[in-house]
Amino acid sequence: MTNFIDIAPFVVFGCAVIALIFSMYQFVSVKRKPEGTDQMIAIGAKIRKGAMAYLKRQYKTVGIFFAVMFVILLILAFTGFLTKFVPFAFLTGGFFSGLSGFIGMKIATYANTRTANGAREGLNKGLKIAFASGSVMGLTVVGLGLFDVSAWFIILKYFFKLGVDDIMAAMLTFGMGASSMALFARVGGGIFTKAADVGADLVGKVEAGIPEDDPRNPACIADNVGDNVGDVAGMGADLYESYVGSIISCGALATAAGLGFNGVLVPMLIAAIGIIASIVGTFFVSTKEGADQKALLGSLRRGTYASAILSAIGSAVLIFTLLPENSNVFWAVISGLLAGVLIGFFTEYYTSDSYKPTQKLAGSSETGSATIIIDGIALGMQSTAIPVIIIGISVIVSYFTAGGASDFASGLYGVGLSAVGMLATLGITLATDAYGPVADNAGGIAEMSGLPGEVRNRTDALDSLGNTTAATGKGFAIGSAALTALALIVSYTDKIKTLGGELNLSITNPAVLIGLFVGAMLPFLFSALTMKAVGRAAQKIVIEVRRQFKEIKGLMEGKAEADYATCVDICTKSSLKEMILPAALGIIAPIVVGLVLGVNGVVGMLAGALVSGFVLAIMMANSGGAWDNAKKFIEAGHYNGKGSENHKAAVVGDTVGDPFKDTSGPSVNILIKLLSMVSIVFASIVVAYGGMGLF
Amino acid sequence: MTNFIDIAPFVVFGCAVIALIFSMYQFVSVKRKPEGTDQMIAIGAKIRKGAMAYLKRQYKTVGIFFAVMFVILLILAFTGFLTKFVPFAFLTGGFFSGLSGFIGMKIATYANTRTANGAREGLNKGLKIAFASGSVMGLTVVGLGLFDVSAWFIILKYFFKLGVDDIMAAMLTFGMGASSMALFARVGGGIFTKAADVGADLVGKVEAGIPEDDPRNPACIADNVGDNVGDVAGMGADLYESYVGSIISCGALATAAGLGFNGVLVPMLIAAIGIIASIVGTFFVSTKEGADQKALLGSLRRGTYASAILSAIGSAVLIFTLLPENSNVFWAVISGLLAGVLIGFFTEYYTSDSYKPTQKLAGSSETGSATIIIDGIALGMQSTAIPVIIIGISVIVSYFTAGGASDFASGLYGVGLSAVGMLATLGITLATDAYGPVADNAGGIAEMSGLPGEVRNRTDALDSLGNTTAATGKGFAIGSAALTALALIVSYTDKIKTLGGELNLSITNPAVLIGLFVGAMLPFLFSALTMKAVGRAAQKIVIEVRRQFKEIKGLMEGKAEADYATCVDICTKSSLKEMILPAALGIIAPIVVGLVLGVNGVVGMLAGALVSGFVLAIMMANSGGAWDNAKKFIEAGHYNGKGSENHKAAVVGDTVGDPFKDTSGPSVNILIKLLSMVSIVFASIVVAYGGMGLF
Question: What is the pLDDT of residues B100-155, one digit of tens each?
Fold first, then answer.
């Protein structure tokens, strides 16, 4: 087997390249599809232009941050606090995380018009284009992720001849770069999309009484740009980070458990198997012409499940071959995979209008907006119980099957593997997730271009299907964030040990306790900052849209064109300004807590942020999702239908849910990992100077 | 000094009796005041009757629970798992906690009409009656609390000749009884009051367009009954539990630190000093006739601050005499006192309409109810940061001044003392808090009896003053809950050690980690259950009120009387039914977690619930308080004033905030302590059978 081990990193690298080639092929074939009418082409171009303009400026802003951090890390490397690879690893992590979002958005902005055009011919045609663009995103994220991990691994091992411990240490910095970029992208994009959405709705739907995506609404292009920069580019960077984070944190745990190169390679190889399984899975997604929505959903599910089964079989073979003495860790991989599926199912249960909770929530609209808000928050809070139990069981299974009862470190390696197992088939789960915003955009374009109602109905069906599959995607994102953050905390303690820091992680240690308090508070503070940012940015849009309605003569009659670009510009400026503070919180908090409370305080903070952030993120995602679908349920004709008092109440719920589910909730997922990454990178400083002489 | 130590328990007992006598004197003097017009007397009687009927049935329901628990504890005592005092201590704790609420409510239901009547003559007259009734409540709670603690101490020490360790062990069960009762009272009363409030508002104000407290509204008596059973009886039981909990948990920490009788007596004596200081403080509360609201607030503050200073001086003398080698713990007491004041100040800052945050929140009403909800939630989330930092600093100061650097247990004793310091002057802080609901009720009675508008204006001024002082009270309640729960967690670990259980409390221990996850989730699940309960109960009221408006001829014209009793009855029945599940969660969770994850998992759960519950409770309290006052700010004429679209949006915020601030938020405070108490009582079972053989 030594032969295989020697070539394994290159096999992994090869699989990454295959993913990238396959996604490029899909990219080209989507781009070749016809874009539709002239009007559709024009609108599509506007959205693309706005989205690209945003991204360029976002990268500039983030570039400054990366430059500053790079210099700081360089200084720390020169003064001996960090190894020399760290600053460069940090940069590449950020670069590729941003690139994932960029490519995903590029294809999404090509696919939106083409999906709308496809939907003119039929539901299935629309689905295929949208799903193909989703799979470009999915395979780009996993392809780039594994490309970078394996490339770094190969460079450090074969060129610099580093030992496995040093390799993993350098690679964790790579993760910090990816997390930082992801946080900026998620927060900035999340603020953009929701500010535009809320702003457009408040003036357009509520005040002017025109439908969503009506071309008379000056914010409608900004709204559609937002879907791309937030839901696509933000999500791409986010999941790139989760994916890479789970692989490298698991690798770091392997070194802690003394499992050497084999242990480090296993997560990479599982990811490689997952990529191949995902590509195979995409071929299962296709239906006969004239299929109904249920059949479409079945087709998407078939793809996901096929990939999962293939991935499980491949992982089994791999583990039994590479880790014969530890072959039980196979169950860790399976438990992660299952936990992801189950959390996804319960996310769907709580947020889809096919099930009781959301239907009942729609019923709360009978007594007005206050009761639908109360019940929606309660629903979100209640929905946190099952995922916590699932994660708990998954940790128990993976810890003990990996031999935790006799060896602590091996058990934790099992937990790391379960996170990798959960994300192994990200290529396809992300595809089913990323296709949602494309369908959403296609609907907007259909509306704005005045396509017949049946086209809009078809894109709505695709969109609603997207909401269901997105629920599964969210399950994986949230679950893997928890497990990855957990693995990173353990990596941190391991790092402290190698640095010679003194650990007393007992919960009764005051430093740990205070750290727990601070950590539990951080996701709340962070969410508050992001929500307020959305509010402020939306306010600016409201004022601008009102101004345009007042000053542009003939706009409401459809005789004059709105000034879309100004709205896009306002969203861009304010979201870039507003993303700084929350992102800074994620980077500064671990350093300040470290300096004040020392290393044990940092661990407390990480654990506190992990558990409270996990619960808060689920609550916000599910409350928001349920409100959204409760509104759709009413629009479908229940509880007096569209335009009724019930509907108005549900719109309030949906508006409150917007920043919950698309800005604050998903950003908290990144925050909990970024906190760990930053702690790891700055560990040597904290060990040397932290604790104020008290702790 | 040995002489003083011998008589000290009796001195403490004597101070408790003084408090009770003083409060009885106040009780009688309030009762002697005239009640006003016949109509006022009739309405007052109805409220009193409804409130008493509720309490009686609540005690019956809770009685069944206590009987069952008593039998279980008795069996455990007979089988050797618990000492024989435990079942009886449990019963008395519950009994006295309930009694505190009962007496507080009794006086509140006498004082409400008398306050309204006093307000007919002038603001100051009304204040005096309301404050006197508040001080009955305050001194009853602290009097009964210290009475019980010292009586048990005396009985166990002098009659049963127990050692100090056994005494404290028995007394912790006493705390579990008090916590259980408090949870039932808070949850049941909280559901009652908010169901009636929300139900009355939704149909009365929104649908029928009649003012709050209009006698034509069939739910108006239920609404006023709710203020008494929730805000008064519930709060009484709640703070009784906090007060007693802080004293006995600190005593338990003293035994852990090997400080013997002196160490145990110090918290009791500090409490005794606080009682005397509180009584003296009440005499500082009085103003000249014709004083404005600012002067009234100044007068209340003078009382509180005078008590705090007196209490600090007394504690200094005490500690320097009794613990000369540990005299630095004085700073722990001071840090607790200061932390309480500071948290109270920031609670006020975030929720009072004299400050920016709430004024800005009122401004969000410009763009409708969705934005005021988003901003209110963000405000609540943001407001968690400062209290966390204050608690953190307070823990650091009290831990290290008490000698934590060299001796872990002594440091934790300091933390316990800071909780006692924070609650020492509860007698007066609770008085300023409890007078609020009385003023609120007085306003209702003024409205229902058709008293002139100026009387209502005066009671409104008193009410609004009450909101401000209540903020300070809440600061103490939340802060002390955190410190007390913290002390209880440490007591739990100590108990496990004496039982011979194996502790590995490292955060990286999977049992601890999973426990943290489960613990962090519990306050969310608990809040969801209580919020949904409010929703369901309110729904029933809505249906009933609608029915009465439809079926009782002449009701809207004021010619027929509404059937108030049925609304009270519905609230009673549904709140008693709905309180079972959340309360059961608090008792069952620690046992289940203990059996599955073992003792380390329990500690993780307790810590997780503490930190996430603390943050969540602050968020809910402050969001709710800010919405309430933003509405009042608009009603005072800002942002287009009463009846405007802004006002409607603010009413939605206020309605959402109701269960946040008066049901779920305060109940979470009790939950985090009850979880610890239950864990301690069932520790021996968990040590023997917990962990599934894995942990």
Answer: 989 988 999 999 999 999 999 888 888 889 989 999 999 999 999 999 999 999 99
Displacement of CA A484 from its chain's centroid (Å): 13
> Which of B309, B267, B308 has its CA nearest to residue B402?
B267
The pLDDT of residue A291 is 66
Check CB contact under 8 Å for B652 and A373.
yes
Give the separation between CA B290 and CA A11, rounded to whole angstroms: 87
Distances (CA, A) of B1 to B5, B10, B139, B317: 6, 15, 29, 13
| Chain B residues lying within 8 Å of A202, measured CB to CB | 367-368, 370-371
Q: Which amino acid is at A274?
A: G
What is the rounded distance in angstroms from the CA atom of residue A102 to the CA atom of residue A121? 29
pLDDT band at A287 (very low <50, low <70, confident <90, very high): low
The first and second tokens of residue A435, run together, are 């296709």
**Plot region of A523 (φ>0 → left; ψ -120 to 50 → alpha; else → beta):** alpha
For every residue of B148-189, which 3-state class applies, written as one string? HHHHHHHHHHHHCCCCHHHHHHHHHHHHHHHHHHHHHHHHHH
Confidence check: pLDDT of A294 > 60:
yes
pLDDT of B198 reads 83
Total tally of structural domains belonging to chain A: 1
Average of per-residue pLDDT values in chain A: 90
Contact between B535 and A374 using a beta-carbon 8 Å cutoff: yes
B656 Cβ contact partners less than 8 Å away, ≥ 6 residues apart: A370, A373, A374, A377, B373, B376, B624, B627
Please check whether residue A653 is in contact with residue A369, taking contact to mean a CB–CB distance below 8 angstroms: yes
Residue A597 and residue A499: Cα distance in Å, rounded? Answer: 17
In sequence order, which residues have a C-beta less than 8 Å from that of residue B264 and are 6 or more positions away? Answer: B153, B164, B167, B168, B251, B254, B255
Q: How far is A155 from chain B (nearest CA, A)?
A: 32
| Chain B residues with beta carbon closer than 8 angstroms to that of A546 | none
Q: Tell whether A246 is covered by a domain.
A: yes
Nearest to B611 among A370, A371, A517 (CB): A517
Q: Across the interface, do A507 and B604 touch by the CB < 8 Å criterion?
A: yes
- B613 min Cα distance to partner chain A (Å): 9
pLDDT higher than threshold 80 for residue A112: yes
Burial label, A441 (beta-carbon count in 10 A; 0-12, 13-18, 19+): buried
Q: How far is CA A618 from CA A232, A605, A624, A633, A662, in A?
A: 20, 20, 10, 22, 12
How many CA atoms are closer than 13 Å to the CA of B393, on its beta-carbon side? 13
Which residues partner with A506 through β-bridges? B506
Q: Across the interface, do B508 and A521 touch by the CB < 8 Å criterion?
A: no
pLDDT along chain B (695 residues), means of 10: 79 96 94 93 92 90 93 92 88 91 90 93 86 92 94 92 86 88 92 88 78 84 89 86 92 88 92 96 77 77 90 93 85 92 90 92 91 95 97 95 88 93 92 86 90 87 78 79 90 90 90 96 97 89 89 86 90 91 93 96 97 96 93 92 91 93 91 93 92 85
Residue B133 placed within a domain: yes
> Residue A607 is nearest to which of B370, B507, B535, comparing CB atoms?
B507
Strand partners, B506: A506
Q: What is the ipTM of this complex?
A: 0.94
Q: Mean pLDDT over residues A505-519, rounded?
A: 94
The pLDDT assigned to A48 comes to 92
Gyration radius of chain B's alpha carbons: 24
Distance of CA A526 to the CA centre of its chain: 17
Distance (Å, whole) CA A653 – CA A658: 9
Domain of residue A517: give its range: 2-324+442-464+491-693
In a domain, residue A616? The reply is yes
- pTM of the full structure: 0.94
Residue A357 belongs to a domain: no
